[in-house]
Amino acid sequence: MVTHIEHDVVTNVETERANALKTFTFDALPLQLGGSFGPVTLAYETWGTLNAAADNVVLITHALTGNTHAHDAERPHDTRVAWWNPLIGPGRFFDTSRYFVVCSNVLGGCYGSTGPSSLDPVSGQPYGMRFPVVTIRDMVRAQRRLIEHVGGRRIAMVAGGSIGGQQALEWAVAYPELVDRVIVVAATAALTAQAVAFSEVQRQAILSDPRWQQGNYAPGEGPEAGLAIARMLAMITYQSEESMEMRFARREARRVDIASPGGYADLGKRFDVEGYLYYQGNALVQRFDANSYLYISRAMDLYDVSEGYASLEAALRRVRSTALFIGIRSDFLFPAARVRWLAEQVSAVGGDATYVELDSPHGHDAFLKEWEQMNDALNTMK
């Protein structure tokens, strides 16, 4: 079974992960954009033990095409098999001998939680585009139900990067009385117009593929080329010019056996960076649902922490958690200056906020690569 380490490594995970995956189903969820939806199933994994006071829960929130497998207790030192493996476990920052760590697949996902590829209990067919538009706030409301289900009365920490960072921020604003500490990594109060533009081009690549079929494709017969091209563009936004020059420069491709998404012949020589993008695009097709990509990326675009409040200041004034904001010097998807500005706004309205910046050339993906810097940043909260 293929799993995912967001955004740059694909690897195999054996059957113990499937055995560790749990699910929780509840009847219905009120939606931010109106109406309600149900039944809702969330897939999740846990590590550690809930204490008697039920106040040692740590919720880890994943990025766009992520899954529940943030940690692998069988291979805790292997960075290829779980996307935040070096940060979770006994004696680590997310200490499983102290905390009860939970990671769930988001509403709208395709790793066990209810999403567009799930079967509609009424029709017996996949929801496809009949699945409702869901938001970050909806995802967090569903996670709130999950925390109740596992017995948590209070959350010691919520932490995540990218769209996971948006979820962490939403937790701090929506449930200030429940969350002690919040860690927002490489995320801001709302996406920039440039970031929304990149997301829309990715979605149009999927929608323009004839095999998308208005979202009604059969399993294994979806818009593979469109999804692969969407991933290729996304991978560019997760990198930086600096990191791409370091890794690829203008070198010729080391492998030419990887087909382009369109299956066309190269025009002259192939560059190494092109082969990398083809590989990443083709790999995503093997493990992710195109309709989930549409819905989750749109949720990221739609997020504005101030929506429903009188102002951004009014929303941030609700934060009672000790808050850590982590930016990345070379990130242009969620620019470090905007992450820093958000931390300053929380402080300006009376919140307890700290900003730390990763000095990394690896762009947005640095929070999944720079383990020593991430650990040092997290430990500023101790």
Layout of secondary structure:
Blueprint: E1 2-5, E2 9-12, H1 15-20, E3 22-26, E4 29-30, E5 36-37, E6 40-47, E7 57-61, E8 100-104, H2 136-149, E9 155-161, H3 163-174, E10 179-185, H4 193-207, H5 224-238, H6 241-247, H7 272-285, H8 290-302, H9 312-316, E11 322-328, H10 336-348, E12 352-358, H11 371-378
Parallel strand pairs: 7-8, 7-9, 9-10, 10-11, 11-12
Antiparallel strand pairs: 1-2, 3-6, 4-5, 6-8
Helix pairs in contact: 2-3, 4-5, 4-8, 5-7
Summarize this structure as a short list of keywords or feature phrases.
Rossmann fold; 382 residues; Rna Polymerase Sigma Factor, Chain: A; two-stranded antiparallel sheet; 11 helices; 8-stranded mixed β-sheet; globular; alpha/beta; 2 domains
Structural account:
This protein is α/β, with parallel strands linked by helices and 382 residues long. Helices cover 32% and strands 16% of the residues. The strands form 3 sheets. An 8-stranded mixed β-sheet has the order 3-6-8-7-9-10-11-12, sandwiched between helices. A two-stranded antiparallel sheet has the order 1-2. Strands 4-5 form a two-stranded antiparallel ribbon. β1 and β2 form a beta hairpin. α4 (193-207) packs antiparallel against α5 (224-238), α4 packs antiparallel against α8 and α5 crosses α7 (272-285). The longest helix is centred in the middle third of the chain and has 15 residues, at 193-207. The protein starts with a strand and ends with a helix. The model is unreliable at 1-6 and 8-16 (pLDDT under 50).
